[in-house]
């Protein structure tokens, strides 16, 4: 960064502080007409930077507006369609994921306060709050992207923010074949399985592409079927006309109002679903899923974190035991063996490519 650019950014930061003070004073006094932010920024820059050239004044105005209502330094990263995830590990450490590979950036926040302000601007429209009493937040943005925030004292080196982006349109099965995630044989096998109402569990590690594959596989569900989706954060974009989307809710600061995936799954069984699609099984809801699969609710689709099809079934059994109903492991293992028919294992390779490496038939 050259001296001129540094001077422009320092002036923009100082003017932004002045703008915030003015707006707070007006709000507290309850006076003055409501002015557009862009208009206020333009007036302020004209007053305080009149001697600068047009290019510098425009740069200052853009920086002030960005840092007042936008996401500050992250705006440039999120404007890049190739960026799949943004990871902030404190004010001076920002990484992105492009093409399945994580790489550092030169982007940084001026200090922890600027990062906290950006986090507040993300959460405020969502009706969520983060403070020492609730130092972790997992939420969904309007475009479907997932945001996760952890602040001190849980996050040692400053606030940690991650934004996992999901486009309005997800790749379908044919596109996954074109990019090599699926082979043509795998595509045909999964299409046949879903249309035959076989239960499918997609297994893989973090960032392996489980949700993307689940979304693609769901396109094989017939248009006339009633589908209920259940997720922690609504990421799926099903194309069928008859879809009911359910999303869990965390407890409030007072510890009330929590609605879990298990609560939603139990309720979904009363909603006359032809299909149930669960974004991810990660808790005691595994028992309810297995029960549903063994009592006539066939054709369910879901994902689970595991390193192999065998591990996926074992994890499902372990999660079901977390329900604490006293069933012996042998009984739950039998339900898993009878309920899950196909396990699809997907991996992310070192070069960032996602590949389906195995489609395993489970014994019945």
CATH secondary-structure class of the largest domain: Alpha Beta
Helix content: 25-40%
* Number of distinct beta strands: 13
Residue windows where pLDDT falls under 50 for at least 5 positions: none
CATH architecture of the largest domain: 3-Layer(aba) Sandwich
Strand order of the largest sheet: 9-8-10-11-7-12-13
Distance between the termini: 64 Å
Tell me, what's the shape? elongated
What is the H/E order?
A: HHHHEEEHEEEHHEHEEHEHEHHEE
Largest sheet geometry = 7 strands, mixed
Name the CATH superfamily classification of the largest domain: P-loop containing nucleotide triphosphate hydrolases
Q: Report the radius of gyration as a whole number of Å.
A: 24 Å
Question: Tally the helices: what do you get?
Answer: 12
**What is the number of independent domains?**
3
Instruction: Give the strand content.
Output: 15-25%
Helix/strand class = alpha/beta
**CATH topology description of the largest domain:** Rossmann fold
Mean pLDDT: 86
């Amino acid at each position: 960064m050259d001296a001129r650019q540094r001077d422009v950014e320092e002036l923009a930061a100082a003017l932004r502080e002045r703008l915030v003070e003015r707006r707070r004073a007006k709000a507290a006094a309850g006076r003055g007409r409501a002015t557009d932010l862009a208009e206020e920024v333009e007036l302020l820059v004209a007053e305080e930077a009149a001697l600068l050239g047009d290019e510098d004044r425009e740069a200052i105005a853009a920086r002030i507006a960005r840092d007042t209502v936008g996401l500050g330094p992250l705006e440039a990263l999120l404007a890049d369609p190739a960026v799949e995830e943004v990871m902030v590990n404190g004010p001076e450490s920002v990484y992105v994921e492009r093409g399945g590979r994580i790489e550092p950036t030169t982007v940084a926040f001026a200090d922890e306060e600027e990062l906290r302000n950006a986090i507040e601007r993300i959460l405020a429209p969502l009706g969520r709050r983060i403070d020492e009493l609730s130092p972790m937040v997992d939420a969904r943005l309007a475009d479907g992207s997932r945001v996760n925030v952890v602040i001190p004292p849980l996050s040692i080196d400053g606030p940690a923010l991650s934004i996992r982006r999901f486009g309005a349109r997800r790749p379908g099965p044919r596109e996954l074949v074109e990019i090599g995630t699926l082979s043509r044989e795998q595509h045909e096998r999964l299409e046949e399985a879903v249309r035959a109402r076989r239960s499918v569990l997609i297994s893989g590690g973090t960032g392996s592409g489980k949700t993307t594959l689940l979304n693609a596989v769901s396109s094989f569900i017939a248009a006339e079927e009633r589908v209920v989706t259940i997720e922690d954060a609504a990421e799926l974009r099903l194309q069928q006309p008859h879809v009911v989307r359910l999303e869990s809710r965390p407890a409030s600061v007072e510890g009330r109002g929590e609605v879990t995936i298990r609560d939603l799954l139990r309720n979904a069984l009363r909603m006359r679903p032809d299909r149930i699609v669960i974004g991810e099984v990660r808790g005691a809801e595994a028992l309810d899923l297995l029960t549903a699969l063994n009592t006539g609710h066939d054709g369910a689709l879901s994902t689970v974190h595991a390193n192999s099809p065998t591990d996926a079934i074992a994890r499902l059994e372990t999660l079901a035991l977390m329900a604490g109903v006293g069933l012996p492991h042998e009984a739950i293992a039998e339900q898993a063996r009878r309920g899950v028919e196909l396990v699809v294992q997907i991996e992310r390779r070192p070069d960032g490519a996602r590949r389906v490496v195995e489609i395993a038939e489970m014994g019945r």
